[in-house]
């Protein structure tokens, strides 16, 4: 491959990565609040740029915190859903006893 085509391929890679990062950031923004999606996306990008600027040790520490928060939310959702199911089944059984 000549130098020109290598340059085009390199810039194509960079532009593709920028497009995919912006799509993920906008998806994050629209997930949290469709009215403020652009601001949230920009904030997410700035936060991750700042995090990467400080190095791999800080990034690894932040990743551990993010994973812990997600796991706790999953655990809370699993416990909440199971207790909701028990409550729903108990309520249905009690209402069916009172129905003629």
UniProtKB/TrEMBL annotation:
The chain crosses the membrane at residues 6-32, 39-56, 62-88. This is Uncharacterized protein. It comes from the Archaea. The keyword Membrane applies. Keywords: Membrane, Transmembrane, Transmembrane helix.
């Amino acid at each position: 491959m000549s130098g020109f085509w290598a340059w085009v391929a390199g810039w194509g890679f960079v532009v593709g990565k920028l497009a995919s990062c912006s799509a993920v950031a906008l998806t994050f923004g629209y997930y949290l609040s469709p009215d403020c999606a652009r601001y949230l996306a920009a904030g997410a990008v700035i936060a991750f740029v700042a995090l990467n600027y400080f190095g791999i040790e800080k990034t690894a520490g932040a990743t551990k915190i993010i994973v812990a928060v997600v796991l706790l939310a999953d655990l809370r959702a699993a416990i909440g859903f199971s207790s909701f199911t028990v409550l729903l089944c108990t309520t249905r059984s009690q209402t069916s006893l009172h129905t003629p």
